[in-house]
Amino acid sequence: MKTSLEVTAEPLPQDLALLGGSLSAFNDADVGGSGRKSLAVFVRDETGVIVAGISGYTAWGWLYVQWLWVDDRLRGRGVAAGMLDAAEREAIARGCHGAWIDTFNPTAKKVYERQGYKPFGELPDFPVGRRRVFLQKRLA
């Protein structure tokens, strides 16, 4: 088989779909189906505008929180903790036994640690001058 290598900053959606589908099929054959399911938690203001949210997914018995954002006006009021609690409850209902999240923000790291998350790894200078910390939590 003759091949060529392509590097792009603008991959086609169908190429990404093929890549994702192929990797999922490989993983399913290797370790079994992931049962991957999206999970989101939103906080809306009185007009319905999203002012905080979590986006992630559950797979292989784990909750992964990919994004967690809180509007500046709501920070320090326990909104992140409430959203994490809600996401964890849903993950438990889906049969998850653990959760993980990562951050390079020292304040966010403290919030996650207060919620029971423990660091298990880090990447220095990601971004430069900071460190990306990976945290996990055992779910009841």
Cα distance spanning the termini: 50 Å
Share of helix, binned: 25-40%
- Which spans have pLDDT < 50 for at least 5 consecutive residues? none
Radius of gyration: 18 Å
The number of helical runs is 3
What general form does the structure show? Answer: globular
> What percent strand?
25-35%
Instruction: Please outline the major beta sheet.
Output: 6 strands, mixed
Structural class: alpha+beta
Number of strands: 6
* Mean of pLDDT: 97
Question: How are the elements arranged and paired?
Answer:
Elements: H1 13-31, E1 37-44, E2 50-59, E3 62-70, H2 79-93, E4 98-103, H3 106-114, E5 118-124, E6 131-138
Parallel strand pairs: 3-4
Antiparallel strand pairs: 1-2, 2-3, 4-6, 5-6
Describe the 3D structure.
The protein has 140 residues and is of the alpha+beta class. 31% of the residues lie in helices and 34% in strands. The chain is built from 3 helices and 6 strands; from the N terminus they run H-E-E-E-H-E-H-E-E. Strands 1-2-3-4-6-5 form a 6-stranded mixed sheet, with helices on one face. The protein is globular. The chain starts with 12 loop residues before the first helix and ends with a strand. 19% of the residues are buried.
Structure described in brief:
The chain is an alpha+beta fold and 140 residues long. Helices cover 31% and strands 34% of the residues. It has helices spanning 13-31, 79-93, 106-114, and strands at 37-44, 50-59, 62-70, 98-103, 118-124, 131-138.
Supply database-style keywords.
3 helices, 140 residues, alpha+beta, six-stranded mixed β-sheet
